[in-house]
Amino acid sequence: MRTALLMIFALLVLGCSTSVDEGAMSYSPAAPELDQALTVSFHPEHSVSALAESENVHLRFTLLAGDGSLHSQAIAMEKRGASWQTSFTPSDLIDDPALLVFAFVDGEDLELFDNNQGQSWKILLNKDGVVAPGANFQNYRLLAGQERLADVLSFARERDGAKDFVDLELEAHPENFRAQREKWLMILDEYGDEAPDSLTRHIDVELGKRLAGWQDWEELPNEIVDLLDLYWQIDRQEAMENVRDAMLGHFQGSDAAREIMHYKAMHEANMEIRVEQLQNLHRIFPEWEGANDDRGFIIYWALGAMNNVEKAREVVDSGLPVEPGFANYLAQRFMSFADDERASALLEQSLTLLIEAEWSPEGTLSEAEWKRDNAEATAAAHFALAQLRIKEGLGRDALPQLTCIVEDFPEFADAEVYRELIGIQTRMEKTDELRANYEKLAGLAELSPVELSGWKDVYEGEQPFVAHMAQVRKESRDEAWAGYEKHALNWDAPGAIFTDQDGVSLGLEELGGKVVLLDFWATWCGPCKMALPGIDKMVPEFVEGGDFVVIPANTWERVSGDERKAAAQATWEELGLSLPIYFDKTREEGRPSVEAFGVSGIPTSFLIGKDGKILFKTIGYGGEAGELELKSKIEWALSK
User: Which among 30, 166, 376, 504 counts the fewest CB atoms within 10 Å?
Assistant: First the structure.
């Protein structure tokens, strides 16, 4: 209630002003209508980020419509005196816009941005003088983690506080069924398995009202799957199945019918039947892009839980597209079955899809972000295909793939790429190319004795080899450190307290003057378990001086209490780790730090400087290259 009153007060204040000024950002009008021109300004003098020095500032935003549709874009801003400014009309970009989430970015350097220290700005749009339908509900979905935007549009999660926005939505727009459904689910969740019959009967009656006379509808509503799912939530599976199957017969071929069929298949417990239903769906809707994802899942299930390699081969042999995001992993699985033919087919198909793909604003990424991600995925597919050729003893055939990465996607040419290149070029005695590639490799990784010997054999320079090697490493380090200085986030770290296995607390505020690596992980998270040994390995190098602390914070665990501690300890023993184990709060104990830090996926780590500022945020596991970069960043942070 207090939050609702504060929101109402804020709206009254906004209604009496012509603009909103929040330091580095301002916008006008204060309460913008969705079909009204909105002007947004960036004020560098109030920014804590290096973007303040940029001469090419863009407004990076995502518009969320009331029904959850998205429009993402980056618009160039104009310099007006000391500030940057741009204007646009939300309704020109998407139907029924409700919520604007935005930050400011450099037009060329995507790592240079200001997103309000991880608390991206948001504007709830109005329609006819009141908050637009769906605005508060979409805000809830963001805060609760139900909708994830691009990393640059980050903010602290607040699942419990987010619930207030569902109430605000229903106060303003009681007809919003999705908000009402979410409210019912919240109540059911609070009761657990002991929901009173009066509540389930009430929901059942309301569902009956909404579905009454559906046979006379011209088309199925967009929220039909949510309606049917609610039957499932109140343990009325039979009623749901009866209505669902009747609707499928009545509305054959419609998009909503397709969604119902997909929902039905994905809720089928029998894996064989699920796959059969999905493939039947794909035959009925052959142009549906979602089928690409489904085929990836089908191969994944077939190679895993179903233990049916022939089914996986059948899907690949069909020649129908598989989402490229699956291709590299599935190719590795096929290679483990000594089926290089299917692995090659998947990778080649993936490359074709990636090369032919086009950006659409109807997603979470701007065009520049999409191009970056597409380039990274394309480079990864080229590398996987090169490794396959090398495995087959066809090193010369791998050379074009590796050369393509180095020439067309140099930002994604890591140490592994150069090592494979050097291996092939050594066998082909390409001395000039070897000399250049050893130089590149030396700037990316620590060379093995064999690699150092190979480099020395082809080196031709006026400096002694050892001096030249030291110079290459220094230049590489200086270039990297200059980049760290430019791109460091410098955000204020939220207060956070963790406990160890014995229940002893450790707060971030106790660690002033130290560099802290905070890594959020879970026992069920594969990439987390891949990342932890690398962190553990580098710790002895830095802890001797007493200025470096690592906090591996266990979070989002599926068990609690002593069972959680035992699971974490088992993981430590499995991985042979020497680090101490720390635990984040559960939601029952208070607000988890993982939410305060705005984490949307794990592993996510934060490097915090001696002054308590967040310097870098890293999402996912980056392999050897990621470990070396983290090590370099720690060295830089300790030097400051």
Answer: 504
Ramachandran assignment for 294, one of left (phi > 0), alpha (psi -120 to 50 degrees), beta (any other): alpha
Q: On the CB side of 546, how many CA atoms lie within 13 Å of its CA?
A: 1
Q: How many CA atoms lie within 13 A of 426 on its CB side?
A: 15
Q: Cβ distance 565 to 501 under 8 Å? A: yes
Q: What gap in Å lies between CA 243 and CA 407, rounded to an integer? A: 57
User: H or E segment at 450?
Assistant: helix 449-458
Burial environment of residue 180 by CB neighbours within 10 A (0 to 12, 13 to 18, 19 or more): buried
Which ranges of 16-109 does DSSP label H, i.e. alpha helix?
A: none
> CA–CA separation, 75 vs 197, rounded Å?
53
Residue partners of 597: CB distance under 8 A and separation at least 6: 118, 156, 493, 494, 496, 518, 520, 604, 606
SS3 of 508, please? helix
For residue 101, which amino acid is it?
V
Task: Return the amino acid letter for 23.
Answer: G
Return phi, psi of residue 396, to 5°: -60, -35
Question: pTM, whole model, 2 decimals?
Answer: 0.88
Among candidate residues 226, 63, 88, the one with its CA nearest the CA of residue 142: 63
DSSP string, 623-638: HHHHHHHHHHHHHHHH
Residue 465 vs residues 423, 442, 479: alpha-carbon distances, Å: 21, 13, 21
Closest CA to 109 of 153, 74, 154: 74
Angle, CA 485 vertex, CA 482 and CA 486 arms, to 5°: 90
Which segments of 493-585 does DSSP mark as H helices, in order? 526-543, 561-575
Tokens representing 631 are: 């090590």
Q: Which residues of the chain have pLDDT under 70?
A: 1-17
User: In this predicted structure, what is the pLDDT of residue 17?
Assistant: 57
Supply the pLDDT for residue 3.
47
Q: Which of 451, 447, 453, 450 is nearest to 476 (CA)?
A: 447
